[in-house]
Amino acid sequence: MSKVPVKYEEEEEEEQEEEEDDDEIIGITDYEDSQTFTDGDPDSEAEEGVLNFSDPFSTEVKPRILLMGLRRSGKSSIQKVVFHKMSPNETLFLESTNKICREDVSNSSFINFQIWDFPGQIDFFDPTFDYEMIFRGTGALIFVIDAQDDYMEALARLHLTVTRAYKVNPDINFEVFIHKVDGLSDDHKIETQRDVHQRANDDLADAGLEKIHLSFYLTSIYDHSIFEAFSKVVQKLIPQLPTLENLLNIFISNSGIEKAFLFDVVSKIYIATDSTPVDMQTYELCCDMIDVVIDISCIYGLPQSGTPYDNESMAIIKLNNTTVLYLKEVTKFLALVCFVREESFERKGLIDYNFHCFRKAIHEVFEVRVKVLKSRKFHSQRRRSKKATPNGTPQDPM
Ligand SMILES: Nc1nc2c(ncn2[C@@H]2O[C@H](COP(=O)(O)OP(=O)(O)OP(=O)(O)O)[C@@H](O)[C@H]2O)c(=O)[nH]1
Ligand SMILES: [Mg+2]
């Protein structure tokens, strides 16, 4: 109960500050630049592909991510570990997938897509498999290759899948996960990546399709590499990514912060970071921090609040190397995790003030997104109702 007035006060405070907020700190004008939203423009080809997809079960427009690859390559394990918090060891007991499994991942309005987990051996020549319909609404195709196995057959399959998909929808992002690399030495990893990269691209070049771009990632469910790879796949599907990166850049440079990530708390996918390079250890520390915060909240949090993560969630962890990890809630599903040097953290007031501006900007980005979606829905409804026969009756009696 005590939370309600606090929230109210905060809102009031925000309203008062609205006028005073110094836009230049976080560059609010940058994200209002219509250029930033061109990717999400209804006229853009990629979006059109998604919008035109007539799926009888889907009411919303969601980019689709397909998980494909040979049997036992690890597709279902990836989905379970990233989105269901399954422990990697438990995946040993997963049964082979025998039909396409579709799942909605809608835990934030930024991460709002469907994942389709395919059985290992899909037959493109099977008439019941309508691959044109499937590829038309696809944002990303993840092809999983088992690096611990002989991958020649997988490469042939990759080639077949990619060329088919490209013919139907050239806007698909093709992502190749060279998976199960936990069993390989560092040298072996690099060598495998180079070999797979070379062979896959040679096959495409032989078919005269060198314009198809494949991205390669070394992944394993036994470390953070799978989360990092998935983060990159998802980021490519977020039209607001340049805006978010820009906001993060302005935020860190004005606050003396070393590195900042915007995390989806549930999946631990980072949906954006500033433009300084990402170092795997930094990312792992951030993931661990989210786990600690959620676990402590689950065990010792207020029972009446119901969720382990809310608008008061925040944490400070001082490391033994003069670095401070600072986590703060941004939206219901997103958290900002920053790396700050101890001496910069002395100016916590400044960081908090800039964070307040940053948070407000992120919320405005969300609002724009919601408005765009609403107006699209409205226009498509109007277009449908206008499709009437010459005698005035609707074309579709449904
Ligand atoms: N060592 C290792 N094993 C993995 C990894 N990912 C998955 N596996 C194992 O690979 C086996 C097959 O995993 P699945 O997820 O069922 O494979 P799948 O691609 O969904 O297989 P189908 O549904 O038959 O197409 C399981 O025993 C997993 O434990 C990984 O990163 N490293
Ligand atoms: Mg499976």
From TrEMBL:
Keywords: Cytoplasm, GTP-binding, Hydrolase, Lysosome, Membrane, Nucleotide-binding, Nucleus. Residues 388-398 have a biased composition (Polar residues). The keyword Lipoprotein does not apply. One of its GO terms (molecular function) is GTPase activity. Residues 9-33 have a biased composition (Acidic residues). One of its GO terms (cellular component) is nucleoplasm. InterPro entries: Gtr1_RagA, P-loop_NTPase, RagC/D. CDD domains: RagC_like. Pfam families: Gtr1_RagA. GO terms for biological process: cellular response to amino acid starvation; cellular response to amino acid stimulus; negative regulation of autophagy; positive regulation of TORC1 signaling. Residues 1-53, 378-398 are annotated as: Disordered. It is found in: Cytoplasm; Lysosome; Lysosome membrane; Nucleus. It comes from the Eukaryota. Guanine nucleotide-binding protein that plays a crucial role in the cellular response to amino acid availability through regulation of the mTORC1 signaling cascade. Belongs to the GTR/RAG GTP-binding protein family. This is Ras-related GTP-binding protein. It comes from Latimeria chalumnae.
